[in-house]
Amino acid sequence: MCGIIGIVSRSRQVASDMYYGLYGLQHRGKESAGMVTSECGEKCCFQGEMGEIPIVFSKKILERLSGNVGIAQNRYSTTSESSFENIQPIQGYWGGEEFWIAHNGNLINTEDLREYCLNKGRQPSADSDTAAIASLISLTSAFSFEQAVKKTIQKLRGAFSLVILYKDRIIVVRDSLGIRPLCLGKRKDGYIVASETCALHHMGATLIREIDPGEISVINRAGIKKYYHPSVTARKFCIFELIYFSRPDSIVLGRRVGDVQENMGRLLAQEHPAEADIVIPIPDSGNYGGWGFIEVSKIPNGQKAILRTHLISRTFIEAVQELRDQGVDLKFVILKEKVMGKRVVLIDDSVVRGTTQKRLVKWLRAAGAKEIHARIFSPPYMYPCYYGIDTYRVKDELIAKRNKGDIEKIRQELGLDSLEYLSLDLAIKAIIETPCVRKPCISLKPDNFCAACFNSRYPVKPSKIN
Ligand code: AMP
Predict the structure, then answer these.
(1) pTM of the entire structure?
(2) What is the distance in A from the centroid of ligand 1 to the CA of 243?
(3) In 76-177, at which residue ranges do the beta strands (DSSP E only) sit?
(4) Which end of the chain has the smaller Cβ count within 10 Å, N or C?
């Protein structure tokens, strides 16, 4: 998963703006980050490095990145290695001019695209799907760069939200199903696109609208122009963005993500009530859902029984199970006196491998909890995602898949006294019924979501599903 940003300003240097924007998107990936800037289409300046934002960009580097047009990305690898060559934005050439591309999402036909490029005598600069897109654009003859982009995206299969820097402008692209988010904001001095509205907020911009599925738009100093804007016939937004990935203050499909999760928690309490003394939302992923559950169940809020240290972040990113276990142990502390002798309900957004639940159950038992129940505000995570939530490379580790969806077996493996999941119908109902904080409200239908991780209905069929 990744975060992307594009900015065009009429009057300001944009590097420090993008720095703050990237900070706001670090929850989407922090293996590496990069940005590229250009002064009115003159030669571009690039900085990219492995690591988190403050490591990649010092004050001195930001000063060197001059220009009032730029794009940036932070990366959590979904195709290919987490390595220097795969840092984005990635450079390409079209018609002798350089362009740069940053991508959020994941293609399912990268191998075919690479082969196509190699057959045409062009070796992509890295093994990522994004490098393949850059090579494809370079190979495409057209009367304009925008046309080359349009022709190229017809060959892409999967999820892609793209920002491309070319000369004095940015080309913004979203796949025809709108699987990954992308939004457009404005500031007095220009326009900004970003994966999430939380980045717009940190860059001092206000949301204009979300980029539509299938849309290609061009932004320059004169403003934004829709280059290609087919009517939205199918929308398949990733449901996991709303359950877990996007930041709770972000606005997606007109709804505040935290409000959606709170609603999921409310419906979870109705669908699967629990008898307990306290409800502990697992911070931070279970917070909003947990508050919704508490509101409906009227069980006292036990959030003070758990401390989450913020020096450790998303621990699933660790490659080795032992490190993930340690990460969870470093991340959470149970306050013994608050759980001793109590019946506890844990609320979380999802159970992927089960690492978090297993470790917390261990520590809660050690702290003397009498009963431990878990209520999850999404269905069992059964099937790998090929569109950017990186579960296809770890599919055999998915606890629900390993246990063939048998909730009783999962409960036993996690060591819980009871375990229940929100049904998919109610998860979707929770989203649709969440009031919009932006007008006009995007009206949604149950089939507007990709929920393949829960129901295996892949909107773009991967060649091998297993
Ligand atoms: P786990 O400990 O693997 O059950 O996962 C615990 C938390 O991390 C949950 O909040 C999940 O939503 C999140 N999570 C785990 N793995 C992934 C992944 N590959 N991509 C996104 N989120 C994940």
Answers:
(1) 0.96
(2) 11
(3) 90-94, 97-107, 158-166, 169-174
(4) C
